[in-house]
Design a protein that fits this description.
alpha/beta; three-stranded antiparallel β-sheet
Length: 332
């Protein structure tokens, strides 16, 4: 009772100025708490998840199908979609976004560019009973991974129903975790690596223009490469390379000589086929594989022909005199 009496006496003695000071202090504490949690949430959205336990790669007795459940892959049927590519870029002025658009333009593929939404509205994906887009490309795959639940479910449902694939790029920076799991996927990323001696997997099903022949000897441009690792059967390597140094990558096999720099998701995990690149378009093989990925994921609806033509310009000096006829020997 004495405590309550003292409390009542204290409130009676408070002036209007004291009440305002207490209210101001309470507001400041609330602002600081909100800013702290907002900072934590933003930091988590800019990086892949690193909380998940890494798979035990040394246990060769555990098969990929036992590590992760698989789902049947829906056959590709692009007859219900328009031949337009939806490109999500971080801004209209980023180098990688402009390179993606340039390749689509030179290939004469129709496309539609959008700023990648974080928590905003997703563009309209359907028109009555038809899909508006045959393929989705993300300049930054983390923008897709960290979509809010509503937009992510909307996009994934569209991709499954209309057999639409996704192409994504992961470009590491100084803030990227060295080893992390891609949130929501049985796929692990190892970043900021220097690589050399790139080779093509001859068994990759998406190869069309790209031919798997000799190894591309030498260092790959930059030291910010990302390689992919997974024990799930849905992931198939497309491009592989060695590390510049002999040091082993954390959480990977001791005897792993080649590391996956471009990986194909066959859609066995969630029914959506994807192709992920561990860097941008600075490496020339990425441009060829990108064109092949567009062709494969669209069921060759957007594809370049294999026919090649050579233009020979005959100068006037080789033209015969008037009244004469040139023969094969003359040209030789």
């Amino acid at each position: 009772m004495s405590f309550l009496s003292k409390l009542r006496r204290l409130f009676r003695q408070l002036t209007l100025q004291g009440v305002l000071l207490l209210l101001f202090a309470f507001c400041m504490v609330t602002v600081f708490i909100s800013a702290y949690y907002l900072y934590i949430g933003t930091k988590q959205e800019t990086e892949p998840s690193s909380d998940a336990q890494q798979p035990d790669c040394d246990d060769s007795r555990v098969t990929p199908s036992r590590l992760f459940p698989t789902k049947p892959m829906k056959p590709v049927d692009v007859s219900r979609t328009d031949p337009v590519v939806l490109v999500f870029v971080e801004s209209m002025y980023t180098q990688l976004g402009q390179e993606i658009v340039a390749i689509l333009e030179t290939s004469r593929f129709k496309y539609h560019t959008e700023i990648a939404p974080g928590k905003g509205d997703m563009p309209t994906l359907t028109d009555e009973d038809r899909g508006r887009f045959v393929l989705v490309i993300y300049e930054n795959i983390l923008k897709y991974v960290n979509l809010d639940a509503w937009n992510r479910e909307l996009l994934d449902k569209y991709c499954i129903e209309y057999s639409v694939g996704i192409i994504g790029f992961f470009k590491a920076n100084e803030n990227s975790l060295l080893s992390a799991q891609l949130k929501g996927f049985p796929l692990y990323l190892h970043s900021n690596l220097g690589l050399k001696d790139c080779s093509i997997n001859p068994k990759s099903p998406l190869l069309y223009i790209t031919k798997a022949k000799e190894v591309e000897k030498g260092f790959l441009p930059g030291d910010d490469w990302t390689v992919f690792q997974s024990n799930h059967s849905t992931y198939e390597p497309v491009l592989l390379a060695k590390t510049k140094s002999a040091e082993n990558i954390l959480h990977m096999e001791v005897d792993a000589a080649l590391h996956t720099t471009v990986v194909q998701d066959l859609g066995l995990h969630d029914g959506i086929q994807r192709v992920l690149f561990g860097n941008n378009m600075n490496f020339w093989l990425h441009k060829l594989v990108f064109v092949d990925a567009v062709s494969f994921l669209t069921g060759k609806k957007l594809s370049l022909p294999l026919d090649r033509y050579i233009l020979v310009d005959i100068d006037d000096i080789f033209v015969g005199k008037e009244g004469t006829r040139m023969k094969t020997e003359d040209v030789k």
